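haha ok so turns out i had the wrong file open the whole time. this is the CORRECT one, sorry everyone. sequence first:
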Amino acid sequence: MKMAVPSGCSVQILTVADAVPVLQASEKSDEKAIVLVKAPITLRALIDQGIVIKEINVGNVGAGPGRKAVMRSTQLTKDEFDTLVGMSAKGIHIYFQMLPEAKSMELEKLKF
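then structure:
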């Protein structure tokens, strides 16, 4: 992961507990942060700890037990989908986009 980071940027791999103070400090500065997580529940845990998240870009999520395709390269469980819907209901912009040049799809247009 660290080798893929552009020069001038830094990377930290943290637990939710360790990420909260780092992200709180980032919110108080001009510093921008990108948070990469494996599951929506991790984002919900950060939000529950007071971290402000304005938008979520869901990228490629592979197949697995209980997962259903909601887009070509995105499979989610019902709980993951419901977690995203719950965050969207709180005003967080959630969309699915695999690559920057690819067309995005709004969560509201998808069904589980």
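The chain is about 30% helix and 15% strand.
again sry for the mixup
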